[in-house]
Amino acid sequence: MKLTVIAENHVPFSRRLLAEHGLSVWIEDEDCQILFDTGSGGVILENASRLGIPLRQAKEVVLSHGHWDHTGGLPQLLAAGILQGKSLTAHPACFGNKWDKDRYIGMPVSQEVLGRMMSVHLTKKPRRISKHLLFLGEIPRRTPWENTHPVGEVRDGEKKTPDYLPDDSALVYRGENGLFLLTGCSHSGLSNILRYAKEVNGGEKIIGIFGGFHLQRADEALEQTAAVLREEGVQVLYPCHCTSFAAKAALAKQFQVEEVGVGSVLEVR
Questions:
Q1: CA nearest to 34, candidates 113, 109, 132
Q2: Is pLDDT above 90 for 13?
Q3: What does the alpha-carbon distance between residue 169 and residue 189 come to, in Å, rounded to a whole number?
C-alpha cells in the first residue's frame, strides 16, 4: 500500500504545495486507488495536480466522519466531475446536521446530491474497500478516558443532541507484517479504534498508525493511550492534522514518531 498526503495542516520545508486545516490522503492498494477524506476544500485539486495524483482514477471515496475539514473538498470534486460514477463509503451519521454553537461544521453536500453522482454506501458495519483495506464502520466506545466530551451538536428541527461522533471511523490495512491503521481524527478514541481493528481481524497485531490522533495535550489521557499502544506493541506512529506538537513530542519519547505533511509518501507492506 502506498499513501500520499494531499491535504494536511502543514507543508514540510522546500515543498511547493499548499497547507490547510484538514486531511486528505491518496491510497494505492495494488491496482485500486482510493481517496480517503477531502480536506477543507481549499487545496485538494491544486495539490493533487502538483503531485501528479490522478483523482479521476479513484475507485472509491471514503469519509472518516462528517466534519467540514474532512469533507470540504467534495463540492470542488463534484464541480470538476471527478466523483461521477465513483463509490462512496461512510457511516450513516456522517450526514448529520452538525453545529458548534452558531457555526455549521458538517458535510457541505447532502446525501441526495452525492447520490445522483455516486453509489453511496452508508454502513455501521465493516465494509471491504479493496483487497487489503477494510472500513471499520462504527467503533465501539469502551475506554473511559476517550470520547468523553461531545463536539458540538446534531440538530434535527428543534431537537439538539450532543454529538459524540458515532460516525468517526477508520481504515485498516492488512499487510504482510500485520495491520496498519489510517485514522481521520480519532474522535472515537485511538485505543478504541486500535482494539476494534484487531477484533475484526482475528487479533492480528497493529504495526503502525497514520492520521489524526485527536490528542491535544501531554496529559493523563495521552499517557493512558500510550500505555495501550505499548501493550499492543505498535512500532511506528505517523501523527498529523489534529495532533498537537506537545502530544507528538510526548509520544516521540516512547515510540518511533515520523513527520507527516502535505506531499508525504509512505509505503506499507
A1: 132
A2: no
A3: 10
Q: Is the alpha carbon torsion for 98, 143, 210, 62 positive or negative?
A: negative
Distance of CA 10 to the CA centre of its chain: 16
How far apart CA 50 and CA 215 sit, in angstroms, is 31
Mean pLDDT for the chain? 96
Structure confidence at residue 86 (pLDDT): 97
User: What's the one-letter identity of residue 132?
Assistant: H
| Distance from C-alpha of 35 to C-alpha of 185, rounded to nearest angstrom | 16
Model confidence at 14: pLDDT above 80: no
Going along the chain, which residue ranges are E strands? 2-7, 24-29, 32-36, 60-62, 87-90, 98-100, 103-104, 119-122, 127-128, 133-135, 153-156, 159-162, 170-175, 178-183, 206-212, 236-240, 256-257, 265-267
Q: What is the pLDDT of residues 179-201, one digit of tens each?
A: 999 999 999 999 999 999 999 99
Specify the pairing of strand 24-29 against strand 2-7. Answer: antiparallel
* Residue 67, CB-side half-sphere exposure with 13 Å CA sphere: 23
